[in-house]
Design goal:
With about 725 residues, the chain is of the alpha/beta class. Among the domains are: about 1-175, Tetratricopeptide repeat domain (Serine Threonine Protein Phosphatase 5, Tetratricopeptide repeat, Alpha Horseshoe); about 350-490, Rossmann fold; about 525-685, Rossmann fold (3-Layer(aba) Sandwich), CATH 3.40.50.2000.
């Protein structure tokens, strides 16, 4: 036995096996020989033979903790993790200070996705041997899966205290920093690891994601390309490259990257992201098939699209609810332990926190700034929790000054923001992002306030159990549709959309030549984002150009790719490409002024003009729309009804086309509508910011009164 053990320890397995066999011929019931002979088989990859020998050994000596522990290792190697857990538990029962058995039992629990039990085993191992590096490392992995990123970070720090040059632990540590949204630190941690070992694709991936979060897009692309040079099959890197290319308006590159990802697997949300990139480019090749693929996957319960990407296609309110529920459950599930646990707040003023990444020169801020300014300071205390990039400019200055408290929380974790809200005893949290870029839905998932509201930023349901209410009106969510929203519906009179009655329109109107318009001819316009344009709507617009000689269509140039695709589509529809005119982006006041050059605004269909529609009406430009069956497709109708122009709301594309044609041929009728717009701008409910703010405050008060009374929250209508 001594000879065999010596050979075994030197790694001469075949020689050791020969001697163990010799021992066993002389003493068949030698339990230790059976045990060690089994280990040589396990080390040679002969796991079934090893298991049989260990079972023989244990029948002879069932009190050997080492043999039970080694049997557990063999069973884990055979994929029988439940059996392994029993074996490790037997070892622990015989030897309660068996740290390795606790460690390996934790590993078996991990492989069965029983992460909390794994964590308990790792903790027991470390209580026995605090220097067990693998237990610290695996504990960190378990904690990360359980979403406890801060605790996981501490575990990986402990690994590095024991083994300072453990590159794998450095990589995990960087990933925890990323998940904690400490992106600058994550990038530094990645750089340190990569100086030691530069071919770690996973660390390059973490680096790319953190750089992407920091909006260092070019640097992030370099990292993703490094990942793909090392491991071309990493779909996540293709997806990241696609998103970055999209943000850089390299739309063809974005679609190509998404296609690469889809060839490898079906990553979450990529079908929707791919379709959305194509819609930004107005690339309608296989449009119907692409839409059907996304909607079919969604109806099958698959994570095929983020909620925002299905708004501009022919999705129903039920589709949008399903999409939001699937997305929220995966991306921002409700916290197991909410921050607000029902404790009553009692303040002289209701404390409202507005959460947004867009409190700067952005469509949302342009609509809301007047509300922020008009809040009744005797009854409401307002806090901004701003997580967008730093800005200057007039609008940002107005927004910043309008709050009692403006807190820059860009670098804060979701939990820290939620804890701050609890410390401030916020009564009502208003999410102004919803499912849009840079959202921090995770704050709401932590239940940071007694009442949590979805308002304005996202025209649809959040599909989140922790969002209590959505602010709407009777047009965007009519009676009978409340069940298609996960929130309680609070209905405002007139329109859900606020406006800023201080919006400035530049005095000077550019000439038609300066705007790129022909000297004469009727000007249809649609200053919507390119992705809202669909082939069906565009077909109607081309019919109008064919019917009205000399007319042009004035569109917004959102990116370098869309104009070429739209001009080709016009030519295919029998319209000269130069009858499409593209407006570049200009200062907001100048943009409103150039509306005076247009004759009629043509709304998009599935996702209407929202702020853009308000801009048109404020500038005195008539708008026609088709009222749809979803929130996003009914906003145009909401605004027109609120202004008092319901005759510009149509029920079908045919009616829409007929109305546009009529107004295009009847200058007197169009002039009469423009006159009503000009006369009503200062009196219409749509543009009465103070009146809107009082109704919104009534909505807030109604919800907080329900919460304070202890009754279940319910939807209601705010009276006029």
């Amino acid at each position: 036995m001594a000879q065999a053990v010596a050979l075994h320890q030197r790694g001469r397995l075949a020689d050791a096996q020969a001697i163990y066999q010799s021992v066993l011929r002389q003493a068949p019931d030698h339990s230790e020989a059976l045990h060690l002979f089994a280990l040589t088989h396990a080390q040679s990859g002969q796991l079934s033979e090893a298991e049989a020998l260990l079972n023989r050994s244990l029948r002879i000596n069932p009190k050997s903790p080492a043999a039970h522990s080694d049997l557990g290792n063999v069973q884990s190697g055979l994929g029988r993790h439940a059996d392994a857990i029993e074996s490790f538990s037997e070892a622990i029962a015989l030897k309660p200070d068996h740290a390795e058995a606790f460690l390996n039992r934790g590993n078996a629990f991990m492989r069965l996705d029983r992460h909390a039990e794994a964590l308990s085993s790792y903790d027991r191992a470390l209580a026995i041997n605090p220097r067990l590096g693998d237990a610290h490392a695996n504990r960190g992995v378990a904690l990360s899966i359980l979403g406890q990123f801060g605790a996981a970070l501490a575990s990986f720090d402990r690994v590095l205290a024991l083994k300072p040059f453990n590159v794998a632990a450095m990589g995990y540590r960087a990933e925890m920093l990323r998940l904690l949204k400490r992106h600058e630190e994550a990038v530094s941690a990645c750089d340190r690891a990569l100086t030691m070992k530069s071919d770690m694709a996973g660390i390059w991936l973490t680096r790319g994601k953190s750089l992407q979060a920091l909006k260092r897009r070019d640097d992030a692309l370099v990292s993703y390309r490094k990942v793909l040079a090392l491991e071309p099959q990493v779909a996540e890197a293709w997806v990241g490259s696609g998103i970055l290319s999209f943000e850089l308006k390299q739309l063809d590159d974005a679609v190509a990257a998404y296609d690469k990802a889809l060839l490898l697997e079906e990553p979450a949300y990529v079908q929707g992201l791919r379709l959305h990139a194509k819609m930004h480019a107005c690339d309608w090749s296989d449009f119907d098939a692409d839409c059907e693929k996304v909607l079919a996957g969604l109806r099958d319960g698959k994570l095929v699209a983020p909620p925002f990407t299905i708004l501009p296609i022919a999705s129903t309110a039920a589709d949008q609810l399903r999409c939001a529920e699937l997305f929220t459950a995966q991306a921002a599930p409700a916290a197991a332990e909410p921050q607000w646990r029902g404790e009553p707040y009692s303040h002289d003023r209701i404390r409202i926190a507005y959460l947004s990444s867009d409190l700067h020169e952005h469509a949302m801020a342009r609509l809301m700034v007047g509300v922020f300014e008009q809040h009744d300071r005797a009854r409401f205390e307002t806090t901004a929790l701003a997580f967008g990039p730093p800005h200057d400019g007039e609008l940002f200055g107005r927004v910043q000054k309008s709050f009692d408290r403006f807190i820059d929380v860009r670098t804060w974790t979701d939990r820290r923001i939620a804890e701050e809200m609890i410390a401030l005893e916020i009564d009502i949290a208003v999410d102004l992002n919803g499912h849009t870029d840079n959202a921090r839905t995770g704050v709401m998932a932590l239940r940071a306030a007694p009442v949590q509201i979805n308002f304005l930023g996202f025209p649809g349901t959040m599909g989140a159990p922790y969002i209590d209410a959505i602010i709407a009106d009777g047009v965007v969510i009519p009676d009978g549709q409340q069940a298609l929203y996960s929130e309680r519906v609070v209905t405002l009179p007139y329109s859900y959309q606020p406006t800023d009655s201080k919006r400035r329109i530049a005095d000077r109107t550019p000439s038609r030549q300066e705007a790129g318009l022909p000297p004469r001819g009727f000007v249809f316009c649609s200053f919507n984002n390119n992705y809202k344009i669909t082939p069906v709507a565009f077909g109607v617009w081309m019919r109008l150009l064919r019917e009205i000689d000399g007319s042009v269509l004035w569109l917004l140039e959102g990116n370098p790719v869309a104009p070429g695709n739209l001009r080709r589509a016009a030519e295919a529809a029998g319209v000269a490409p130069d009858r499409l005119v593209f407006a570049s982006r200009v200062d907001q006041a100048e943009h409103l002024a150039r509306h005076r050059l247009a004759d009629l605004f043509l709304d998009t269909i599935h996702y209407n003009a929202h702020t853009t529609a308000s801009d048109a009406l404020w500038a005195g430009l008539p708008l026609i729309t088709v009222q749809g069956s979803t929130f996003a497709s009914s906003v145009g109708a909401s605004l027109l009804h609120a202004f008092g122009l319901p005759e510009l709301v149509t029920a079908s594309l045919d009616e829409y086309a007929a109305l546009a044609l009529k107004l295009g041929r009847d200058p007197a009728a169009l002039a009469e509508i423009k006159g009503r717009l000009a006369r009503g701008r200062d009196t219409a409910p749509l543009f009465d910011t103070a009146r809107f703010t009082r109704r919104l405050e009534a909505a807030y008060t109604g919800l907080i009164d329900q919460r304070r009374s202890g009754q279940p929250l319910s939807g209601f209508a705010v009276p006029r």
